[in-house]
Amino acid sequence: EKGGYDYFMLKEIAEQPKAVADTLLGRIDTSGALTLDEVRISAPELREVDKVVIVACGTAFHAGLIAKYAIEHWTRIPCEVELASEFRYRDPILDARSLVIAISQSGETMDTLMALRHAREQGSRVLAICNTNGSTIPRESDAVLYTHAGPEVAVASTKAFLTQLVACYLVALYLGQVRGTKWGDEIRAVIRDLAEISGAVERVLETMEPVRALARSLAGKKTVLFLGRHVGYPVALEGALKLKELAYMHAEGFAAGELKHGPIALIEDDLPVVVVVPSPRGRSVLHDKIVSNIQEIRARGARTIVIAEEGDEAVVPYADHLIRIPVTPTLLQPLVATVPLQVFACELATARGNEVDQPRNLAKSVTVE
Length: 369
Ligand code: F6R
Known about the structure:
By secondary structure, the chain is α/β, with parallel strands linked by helices.
């Protein structure tokens, strides 16, 4: 049932191109527009939405953090992202014009369920993004957009995360389409880019051998740090979470701009620091800033592991290890940038003799608060 792989996690990492393609399937019509029939919240209602609030836990929360960039950019609707476990306890401000998006692979996470119940009590509409047909979260939501990752068995989420991202992009684009904001060239172009992204994920998977070798060489380390900016920041958080869960190592993700506000004090000789570099095209300011960040940490002895787009030559002099990812639009980069981090964590776990599919102390579905 592991299809020739040693672990479910490896199989599920390998299934990501298909999972991404399946989640897009049938949702883009021949004219290049989105048809999300399952989103049973009417177009007039969606036009009334004045705030989007995303609630989720763990890896799904990281998908939500990335969704915020896409939603605000493509729709200009303010978007908040909150850990489901914190949400209802702070008496959040919600009403009938708030659209709450609950993201959950299992559809059974108690924290997320309680957050969505609270939102519905306040009169908000809830859209679930979920991977498990007929589970509790979609049953209790007003609408659901299913991710088509197929069953995810390994405790650490991989393909479900990529499909959650795809679903988030679809919702963001759909909101933009329905509301007419920025609808037109940019959104159409992104829809075309999304249709190609499965191939890009496939290409990343073909180049992972050096990442595995690097991971094995770091098996004796105690700490790995992850840095990113913009959508690369949640990717850094996800890379760190994967490493904690699987390798039981101290791992932290930071927004690279925060370095000088504290974390740079952690940098010491030969400390591995993974840096997710945004595309040099488009938001080039961000790219230049992160190149300076790489220089700063390297000058203090960090061993830099740089994830950068093909053709990005500016990072080369400062990268002790360079991991190339395909050229993608900035907002979609997490779909390709996360994959090496999954492989890295999985290989480190194996090198440290850990149980990859069943990390200690964790359960696949957390049905208690
Ligand atoms: C991380 C992981 C967890 C889950 C979290 C939410 O690899 O698996 O952090 O993402 O427990 O679970 P779902 O998505 O089922 O609500």
